[in-house]
Write a structure and sequence with these properties.
Blueprint lengths: L18 E2 L9 E2 L49 E10 L3 H12 L4 E4 L18 H7 L2 H7 L2 E3 L1 E6 L5 E5 L11 E3 L2 H14 L3 E3 L4 E6 L4 E5 L3 E9 L6 H6 L2 E3 L5 E9 L11 E6 L5 E7 L5 E8 H7 L3 H10 L4 H5 L3 E2 L4 E4 L3 E3 L3 E2 L2 E3 L14 H22 L8 H21 L2 H8 L5 H12 L8 H6 L5 H11 L1
Helix pairs in contact: 1-2, 1-4, 1-9, 9-10
This protein binds flavin-adenine dinucleotide.
Flavin-adenine dinucleotide binds next to helix 1 and helix 9.
C-alpha cells in the first residue's frame, strides 16, 4: 500500500457533527458550527493528473459563477428589521433552496438565511432518482445537467467477506420512469440550487446566522445575528445543526444505532467494472457492523468513506485518516480498489449522526430535511428526503396560505408523511444490517420481483404501497406480509 499524499492529522474522532482536521499541524478537531458565518473550506482541490481509465475521468465539471446573494450589512442591535416575507427559511442547503424555489413558483415572498458563504464542503454526494421530478418542478434540473455532474444509473452492493455482489439498475425498478440521478460535489451542487432560488426571486441573506424563533399570534419572528425577519411561517432547514430541535431539547440521537464515519476525496481509485459511474457500497464485519462508500465524480476524483460502530472505533483511538486506511487495508473488496489512491482533500469525520426530533412542526414552524431527522446514510437517502420534505412542506404551506391558518394542526399531515417516509428507509436500513436480508439482496438476480422492489426503494420510491417489500419491511401487512415476502423471494 502506497502512503497517501493527503493531509495528515493525529486528531481523534470526537462525538458531534462534522469535524475538520487540518493538515500537518497538530490542530485540534473543530466543529464546523463553532464559528457561525465563517466559510467552510472546500475539501476538493483541483484534480491532479489521474491515470484512472474510466469514462468521465479527467472531465471537469464546469465552474460555477459566484453566488448572487447579498451579504447582510451589520446593523446596530438585534432588533433591526431586515425584512418581511411570507416564509423565512433557515438554511440554504438542497432542502432550503428547493423549498424556496417551489414557494416562489406559488408566488410567495421568501427569504433564505444561510450562515456560511458558498461554495462550501458538505457530505452527501450520491443522489436518488426520485429527486429529479422535484427539481424539474422547481425549475433547476437543466442547470444541474449543465454543470456536467456524473450521471448515476445504478448502485452496486458487495459483501466484503464473500465478495458476493449485485448491481441494481434504476431502469429496472417497479417504476420505469426514474432511470438516473447524479453524483455531485456538494460545494458546486448546493451553489447551483441556491443561485437558482435567488434567480427565482428568493432573497438570500448570506452569510447570516439565525439565532432564535418566536411564534406570535399574528406572525413569526426569526432573530438573526444582524436583526430580525418577520414572516407568516419559519421553515427550519438547517440540516444536522438542528436550529430549532436543539433549542427545543427535541433532538434525540438514535439510542443504539451509533456510528462513526471518516472520509476524503481521492484520485486513482478503481471504479465499478459494470459501469464506472455506479456508487459502490461494501458491507463488512459483524462486530464492527459497517460499510464503505465509493462515489465517482465526473472530474476523475472519487469520494471514499467508511461508516462503522462508534464504540469500536472510539476504543481504537484512531484519527480519521488512520480509521479510514485501517478499514480499507482490512477490506477484501476495498483494498485493491484503493491500492494506488491519492488523497486530494481533508480527512473529515462525523459521529452519532442518526437522530430524530419529538416534533417536526409547531405553530408557524416546519422542520424540513435533516433539521427534523437524519437516518443512516447507507442508501444515500439524505438529500432526497430533504428535497421530498421541501416538496411536501410547500404543499402544506399552500393549503395554509389558502385559509390564512398557520397553526400546528395545518401541518400535521406533513409531519405524518415525513414520519412514514423515514420509517420506510429505517426499515430498509435495519434489513441491510441483517446478514440474511443482505444475502437475499446480493443474490436477487434470480428473483426479478425482489430485485425490482429493492431497486425502487434504492431510487427513493418510498410512498409506493404497491411495492410489497415496503409493506413487508414496515410490517404493515401483518401476517400477509410473510406471504408477500415468500412471493418476493420465491
Ligand atoms: C457520512 C454521511 C454520508 C452521507 N451520504 C449521503 C449521500 O450519499 N447522499 C445523500 O443524499 N445524502 C447523504 N448524506 C446526508 C446529507 O449530508 C444530508 O441529508 C443533506 O445534506 C441534507 O440537506 P439539508 O438541506 O436538509 O441540510 P444541509 O445540506 O445540511 O444544509 C443546511 C444548511 O443550513 C445552514 N445552517 C445551519 N444552521 C444555520 C443557522 N442557524 N442559520 C443559518 N443557516 C444555518 C448550514 O450552513 C447549511 O448550509 C450523508 C450524511 C453523512 C453523515
Amino acid at each position: 500500500m502506497k502512503p497517501t499524499k493527503g493531509k495528515r492529522s493525529g486528531a481523534r474522532i470526537a462525538k458531534g457533527r462534522t469535524q475538520h482536521v487540518k493538515g500537518s499541524r497538530k490542530a485540534k478537531a473543530k466543529r464546523i458550527d463553532s464559528k457561525p458565518g465563517r466559510p467552510v473550506k472546500a475539501a476538493r482541490k483541483p484534480a491532479r493528473a489521474s491515470n484512472t481509465k474510466t469514462a468521465g475521468a479527467n472531465r471537469r465539471a464546469k465552474p460555477v459563477t459566484p453566488a448572487r446573494s447579498e451579504s447582510a450589512t451589520p446593523r446596530p442591535g438585534a432588533s433591526a428589521l431586515l425584512g418581511r416575507f411570507d416564509v423565512a427559511i433557515v438554511g440554504g442547503g438542497p432542502g432550503g433552496s428547493t423549498l424556496a424555489a417551489l414557494l416562489r413558483n406559488q408566488g410567495r415572498s421568501v427569504c433564505i438565511v444561510e450562515r456560511v458563504k458558498f461554495p462550501r464542503f458538505r457530505i452527501g454526494e450520491s443522489l436518488l432518482p426520485f429527486s429529479i421530478d422535484i427539481w424539474k418542478k422547481s425549475g433547476v434540473l437543466q442547470k444541474i445537467h449543465d454543470i456536467g455532474f456524473m450521471v448515476k444509473r445504478g448502485a452496486r452492493f458487495v459483501i466484503d467477506e464473500t465478495l458476493e455482489e449485485e448491481c441494481f439498475w434504476f431502469k429496472n425498478g417497479l417504476d420505469k420512469d426514474h432511470p438516473y440521478a447524479f453524483q455531485v460535489q456538494r460545494a458546486d451542487f448546493d451553489k447551483v440550487l441556491l443561485d437558482h432560488a435567488a434567480d427565482r426571486g428568493a432573497r438570500v441573506f448570506q452569510p447570516l446566522s439565525a439565532t432564535s424563533f418566536l411564534a406570535r399570534p399574528d406572525k413569526a419572528i426569526l432573530e438573526t445575528k444582524e436583526g430580525r425577519i418577520e414572516a407568516q411561517v419559519v421553515c427550519d432547514v438547517s440540516g444536522r445543526w438542528t436550529f430549532m430541535s436543539s433549542r427545543q431539547g427535541q433532538r434525540k440521537v438514535h439510542p443504539t444505532h451509533r456510528k462513526v464515519t471518516a472520509f476524503n476525496h481521492f484520485t486513482n481509485v478503481v471504479r465499478c467494472e459494470q459501469d464506472p459511474s455506479n456508487i459502490i457500497i461494501v458491507r463488512f464485519g459483524d462486530t464492527r457492523m459497517g460499510w464503505f462508500w465509493l462515489i465517482p465524480f465526473s472530474d476523475g476524483t472519487t469520494s471514499v468513506g467508511v461508516v462503522a460502530d462508534a464504540e469500536y472505533y472510539r476504543q481504537a483511538q484512531l484519527s480519521p485518516e488512520q480509521f479510514l486506511w485501517k478499514s480499507i487495508k482490512e477490506s477484501r473488496a476495498m483494498e485493491p480498489r484503493m491500492r494506488h489512491a491519492v488523497a486530494c482533500g481533508e480527512y473529515r469525520s462525523e459521529a452519532d449522526f442518526s437522530f430524530t426530533s419529538d416534533r417536526h412542526v409547531a405553530d408557524r414552524l416546519i422542520k424540513v430535511g435533516d433539521a427534523g431527522a437524519f437516518i443512516d446514510p447507507v442508501f444515500s437517502s439524505g438529500v432526497f428526503l430533504s428535497t421530498k420534505a421541501a416538496e411536501l412542506a410547500a404543499e402544506a404551506l399552500d393549503k395554509a396560505f389558502a385559509v390564512n391558518d398557520f397553526s400546528e394542526r395545518m401541518f400535521q399531515d406533513y409531519e405524518q408523511k415525513i414520519r412514514s417516509g423515514t420509517a420506510v428507509f429505517w426499515a430498509f436500513i435495519d434489513a441491510f444490517y441483517n446478514r440474511d436480508f443482505l444475502k437475499q439482496m446480493v443474490t436477487s438476480r434470480r428473483r426479478p420481483l425482489l430485485q425490482s422492489s429493492i431497486t425502487s426503494l434504492l431510487a427513493g420510491d418510498i410512498y409506493n404501497m404497491d411495492n410489497a417489500l415496503i409493506t413487508y419491511l414496515t410490517g404493515k401487512g401483518g401476517a400477509f406480509a410473510d406471504e408477500e415476502m415468500k412471493a418476493l423471494v420465491g
